[in-house]
């Protein structure tokens, strides 16, 4: 391998030397030929190259789009109801900026080619023209106003309060993974405090479930039925989901590419987002033709050396499937304190009760 | 106090007795040390900034090549990498901690050391005295200090690469708590301290330089050089300096608070943190506060990088189109508008931090407003070419490349500035593509344009043209090939700053594209080495400049001797009679600024 490296370096050096010698020679030639003549020749060559670059560039842009569009998320469509407006707005913005792109790039390179230096040519002394300048101040301003209005309308819609019936899930980031919490049958998240976090005792969120003298904390009974999970977040198709986002250590970010959503997880400052899943995971597998398809939660804020591996998953299911799933979950309080488990009823009756409550709440 | 001395100095220069000044300059002996090392000559300081910047560009570029190898060839093993980086590349594979360290250093070095110090440090120093008609900066001594603070900052940053826990690795933006807690990442240990010290020294350097540029532009213009007769380069450097002077102190304050949080137990940025099996005592701080302080510099910083390039491009486009720049006042006005707006848009970097949506709406509006002055600039540059007599010198090609890249990268800013669209694109490769094109590569092109154009003034020799053309064509084609496809990976949602994608069902299918991008970036990097070779070879062996005004330009720097001494002009400083853009007026190819207005000259 090391000889290979030397060979590569030697080859690169050789190429360098050849390029350099040619360049030096061309300099001598241009002096011999007469500098003015050489300059004009260079001009012709570069003028031609600029035009060629523009034409090949446009073809390249088209080709790139042809090859890569299907790899983008737009090809498979948004997986959330809100994402539909997103995709629409994105396409509009692409249309407007694309038009500007083509026009300006065209004139830039076309003018350069068309007005390249030629002997004895007189230029047009054109220092300013108020009318022209006014036109190209006002027209972009109008287009931008349109984009701003469209954008802000959508922005206020998605940042407004979540619909009342939204399924609330808390998601907490830590280096390098996610923990999710459901409020349980009382539909209330119990209070947490970071100083009572205890991973060894299954209290990774710091749920306050017993009185604490040191920190002057009172046990919050709302905690007793909260369900905590680290593997997969279950959401319901067609039902708005509100995520309450937090972090235990550094800043993370809940990135939900398929739902066109993203929000930072900041220690000490809870944030929220909401969206409405449009397809179940099963349906997405069919839509994308990928049997391994999964909704992924990617950390989108640099959070340390394991940043790239901070992955969570979302399973979107129907309401019925969700009810079955949630009924099987054991509140974290009972996971951490098996002795507190109510004695008489079997696990079966508990889950039935929970299921009943969840169904009623919908 | 320094303002007062400036006044005094400018007094001595503009009154006729200035020959005294000349005598004064002539009679002190220059030693090697005062001429090349601790020089107070703005031209030498400019070269010092440039060459230090080049060193950093090679280092920063090499870092990107190494981490691109990991992204393009995650399966490959490079034994030479282990010989070079040791533990960082165990078994010939770049380790995550090294990947993140290199990414962070690449960003820091390129943004601050190359595109701030190397760009505005070089050309503000070189051109401000030469183009306003001054013997030197308002304070040559502070100017010298500015360079040496940058030099020390460089040494400290460089030394952080060699500490055992590695340099800082939490991204160039250094968001706490990651940057505040050594427990969170090895790079946040002593590497981060060195990073902060280096950056603090850098801020000092930027302030000393900036104050000097402002004082010189305002007070030391030669007779007849009213503000509206300044070349656009000077306007751009002036606004750049104002941006730096007003925003760097805010960054500095952010760093001070960070140092306090790191070492003195304060909780400015820290709250509710449980790390390494331990709850930290800090409560009540806000991690978001740092982001506000950082981006209050961070966004103007983008324009600190971009404006000098815009100024030089305006000048070079006009000179080589043999036509006046179109809409001079609109160009100045749009620079001014951009400079003002630069301070009012910082939170568009923070749309997904939980920022109040109502507040976010204002930042959307103000951000998209920047597109208006930017559009004016683009249209004016294009109109400058219209019906001109365009010469394609390498400088001109790079200037045109700048405009093309500025359009491409600027337009994607309209997506990112609109908060609703930003939500999906934030921190994906779309952002990487956007800022590399519009700020990184475009400004680099402005810098190359400046180097090719003013090289004859710096070294009294020309760069080799053919190498210049090769440099340009490979670089522009390469830049588009690298960054254009990245928009698409961004649209697929691929997050930036990922070391490896193999576990991600959504992101793992870009292997061959990443390979392609990595190969092109290696070629582009090698081409830059070709340019460096051209640069250093030509200092000694380049074709000699035989005329004072090789480009037929109007501005004052071309009225100095071919090799100007300290003091720039022999004898009196020339007087200025007109604006710098009388190209092709009344059938004359060009009319220098020092030419008095003729009686029969047409008005415009």
Which structural class do you get from the secondary structure elements of chain B? mainly alpha
| Strand numbers in spatial order across the main sheet of chain A | 3-2-1-5-8
- Tell me roughly what share of residues is in helical segments of chain B: 55-70%
Rg on CA atoms of chain B, Å? 24 Å
Order of helices and strands of chain B: HHHHHHHHHEEHHHHHHHHH
Average pLDDT of chain B works out at 92
- For the termini of chain A, the CA-CA separation is 65 Å
- Characterize the quaternary organization of these chains: heterodimer
Give the overall pLDDT of chain A as a whole number.
90
Give the strand tally of chain B.
Answer: 2
Distance between the termini of chain B: 41 Å
Uncertain runs of chain B are 1-27
> Radius of gyration of chain A in whole Å, from Cα?
31 Å
Shape summary of chain A: elongated
- Low-pLDDT windows of residues of chain A: 356-362
Structure description:
The complex is a heterodimer of chains A (362) and B (604). Chain A has 362 residues and is α+β, with helices and mostly antiparallel strands. In chain A, 48% of the residues lie in helices and 15% in strands. Chain A contains nine helices and ten strands. Chain A has helices at residues 2-33, 35-68, 73-76, 81-114, 130-159, 281-288, 319-328, 332-336, 347-361, and strands at 167-174, 177-182, 227-229, 232-236, 241-247, 252-256, 261-265, 271-275, 295-299, 311-317. In chain A, the strands form two sheets. In chain A, strands 3-2-1-5-8 form a five-stranded mixed β-sheet. In chain A, strands 4-10-9-6-7 form a five-stranded mixed β-sheet. In chain A, a hairpin with a 2-residue loop joins strand 1 (167-174) and strand 2 (177-182). Chain B has a two-stranded antiparallel sheet. Classes of the chains: A alpha+beta (362), B mainly alpha (604).
């Amino acid at each position: 391998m090391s000889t290979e490296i030397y060979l590569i370096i030697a080859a690169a050096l050789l190429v360098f030397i050849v390029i350099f010698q040619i360049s030096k020679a061309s300099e001598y030639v241009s002096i011999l030929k007469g500098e003015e003549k050489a300059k004009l020749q260079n001009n012709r060559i570069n003028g031609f190259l600029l035009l060629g670059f523009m034409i090949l560039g446009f073809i390249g842009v088209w080709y790139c789009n042809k090859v890569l569009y299907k790899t983008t998320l737009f090809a498979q469509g948004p997986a959330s109801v809100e994402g539909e407006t997103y995709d629409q707005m994105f396409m509009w913005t692409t249309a407007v900026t694309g038009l500007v792109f083509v026009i300006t790039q065209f004139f830039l390179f076309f003018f350069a080619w068309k007005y390249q230096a030629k002997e004895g040519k007189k230029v047009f002394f054109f220092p300013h023209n108020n009318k022209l300048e006014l036109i190209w101040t006002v027209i972009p301003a109008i287009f931008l106003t349109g984009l701003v209005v469209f954008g802000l309308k959508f922005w206020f819609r998605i940042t407004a309060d979540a619909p009342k019936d939204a399924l609330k899930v808390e998601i907490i980031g830590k280096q390098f993974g996610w923990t999710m919490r459901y409020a349980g049958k009382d539909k209330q998240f119990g209070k947490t405090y970071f100083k009572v976090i205890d991973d060894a005792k299954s209290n990774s969120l710091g749920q306050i479930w017993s009185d604490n003298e040191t920190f002057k904390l009172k046990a919050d009974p709302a905690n007793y039925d909260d369900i905590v999970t680290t593997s997969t977040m279950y959401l319901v198709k067609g039902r708005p989901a509100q995520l309450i986002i937090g972090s235990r250590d550094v800043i993370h970010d809940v990135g939900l590419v398929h739902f066109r959503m993203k929000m930072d997880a900041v220690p000490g400052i809870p944030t929220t987002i909401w969206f409405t899943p449009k397809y179940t995971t099963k349906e997405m597998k069919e839509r994308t033709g990928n049997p391994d398809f999964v909704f992924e939660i990617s950390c989108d804020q640099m959070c340390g050396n394991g940043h790239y591996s901070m992955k969570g998953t979302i399973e979107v299911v129907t309401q019925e499937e969700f009810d079955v799933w949630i009924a099987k979950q054991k509140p974290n309080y009972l996971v951490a304190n098996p002795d507190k488990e109510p004695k008489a009823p079997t696990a079966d009756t508990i889950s039935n009760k929970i299921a009943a409550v969840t169904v009623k709440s919908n | 106090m320094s303002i007062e001395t400036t006044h005094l100095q400018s007094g001595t220069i503009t009154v006729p007795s200035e020959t005294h000044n000349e005598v004064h300059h002539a009679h002190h002996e220059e030693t090697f040390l005062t001429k090349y090392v601790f020089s107070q000559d703005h031209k030498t300081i400019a070269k010092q900034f440039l060459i230090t910047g080049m060193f950093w560009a090679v280092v920063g570029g090499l870092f990107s090549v190494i981490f691109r190898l990991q992204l393009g060839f995650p399966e490959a093993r490079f034994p030479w990498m282990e010989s070079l980086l040791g533990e960082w590349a165990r078994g010939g594979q770049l380790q995550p901690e090294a990947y993140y360290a290199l990414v962070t250093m690449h960003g820091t070095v390129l943004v601050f050391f190359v595109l701030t110090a190397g760009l505005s440090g070089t050309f503000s120093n070189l051109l401000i005295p030469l183009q306003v008609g001054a013997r030197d900066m308002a304070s040559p001594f502070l100017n010298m200090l500015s360079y040496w603070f940058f030099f020390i900052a460089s040494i400290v940053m460089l030394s952080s690469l060699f500490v055992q826990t590695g340099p800082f690795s939490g991204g160039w933006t250094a968001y706490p708590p990651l940057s505040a807690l050594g427990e969170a990442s090895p790079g946040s240990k002593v590497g981060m301290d060195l990073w902060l010290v280096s950056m603090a020294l850098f801020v000092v350097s930027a302030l000393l330089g900036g104050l000097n540029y402002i004082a010189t532009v305002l007070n030391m213009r030669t007779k007849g050089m009213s503000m509206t007769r300044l070349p656009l380069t000077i306007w751009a450097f002036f606004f750049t300096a104002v941006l730096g002077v007003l925003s760097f102190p805010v960054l500095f304050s952010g760093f001070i608070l960070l140092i306090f949080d790191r070492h003195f137990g304060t909780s400015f940025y820290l709250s509710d943190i449980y790390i390494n099996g331990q709850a930290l005592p800090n409560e009540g701080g806000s991690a978001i506060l740092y982001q506000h302080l950082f981006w209050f510099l961070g966004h103007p910083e983008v324009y600190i990088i971009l404006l000098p390039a815009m100024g030089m491009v305006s000048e070079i486009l006009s000179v080589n189109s043999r036509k006046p720049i179109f809409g001079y006042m609109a160009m100045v006005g749009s620079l001014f508008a951009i400079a003002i707006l630069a301070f009012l848009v910082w939170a568009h970097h923070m749309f997904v931090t939980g920022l109040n949506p109502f507040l976010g709406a204002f930042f959307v509006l103000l951000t998209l407003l920047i597109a208006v002055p930017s559009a004016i600039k683009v249209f004016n540059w294009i109109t400058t070419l219209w019906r001109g007599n365009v010469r394609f010198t390498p400088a001109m090609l790079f200037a045109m490349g700048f405009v093309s890249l500025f359009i491409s990268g600027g337009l994607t800013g309209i997506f990112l500035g609109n908060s609703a669209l930003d939500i999906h694109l934030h921190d994906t490769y779309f952002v990487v593509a956007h800022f590399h094109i519009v700020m990184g590569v475009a400004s680099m092109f402005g810098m190359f344009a400046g180097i090719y154009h003013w090289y004859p003034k710096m070294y009294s020799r020309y760069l080799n043209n053919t190498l210049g053309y090769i440099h340009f064509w490979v670089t522009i084609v390469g830049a588009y090939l690298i960054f254009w496809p990245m928009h698409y990976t961004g649209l697929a949602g691929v997050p930036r700053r990922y070391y490896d994608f193999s576990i991600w069902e959504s992101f793992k299918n870009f292997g061959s594209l990443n390979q392609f991008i990595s190969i092109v970036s290696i070629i582009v990097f090698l081409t830059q080495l070709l340019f460096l070779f051209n640069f250093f070879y030509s200092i000694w062996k380049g074709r000699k400049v035989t005329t004072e005004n090789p480009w037929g330009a109007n501005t004052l720097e071309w009225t100095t001797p071919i090799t100007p001494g300290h003091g720039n002009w022999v004898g009196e400083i020339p007087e200025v009679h007109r604006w710098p853009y009388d190209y092709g007026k009344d059938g004359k190819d060009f009319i220098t600024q020092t030419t008095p207005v003729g009686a029969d000259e047409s008005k415009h």
